[in-house]
Specification:
With 232 residues, the chain is an alpha+beta fold. It has 10 helices and 7 strands. Strand 6 and strand 7 form a beta hairpin. Helix 1 crosses helix 5 and helix 2 runs antiparallel to helix 4.
Amino acid sequence: TDITLPAMPHTEHLILTPEQVHALAEALPARYRATVYLGAGCGLRHGEVIGLERGHVDFLRREVHIVQQLTAHNGRKPFVAPLKTRTSRRVVELPKVTADALSRHLATFPPTSVDLEDDTNPRLSGTRPAELLFTNSAERPIYRGTWSQTWAPAAKSVGLPAGVGFHALRHYFATLLIFNGANVKTVQMALGHSTPTVTLNTYVGLWPDQLDRTRTLVDAALGDSARVAAAQ
């Protein structure tokens, strides 16, 4: 028996401007500014950003290796956890603007080694030292649950509506790719979505020129209306 699945609701996303991205970075405390460019320039989720370690950034090859996230739940302190989906494990390109921001960050805030529980491999679970790129002012892992206390004042100061979180930077990255001609598969892989369908359901309204491209392709193949009229 065929089963028709309900359509996933389409959610409108606030699309930041480049000016807002830079303003957010400036409004955040200095130790968090580079996180903005990892979100807007590489499409990372917040948990992926705060879970980054020094060895995950390859400045020579201009790559960032996304292999884990930092999270906290069920009363546990922040710990290293597997990524959201299997395809979330990825290598993303490191743009110059993000590389420069990270270089400045590392010069001012060298990675801090902290002992973290690591759940990325159930067979080898335990505590290990982690060289986190981003820590709080006490040089401890960042709690995602309290991040809003840092983010909200910065977002408000640049005029963003209440409730707009770090994920808006990831949407900025996605729309930047889409508006510059990236196809669904490219965006999916860059964001680490589980399937192209997830990408389409999330950003279906942001391929604004696809209908125009379809019309252009048909007209180029079949000819203009004058030729059609002459053939009738």
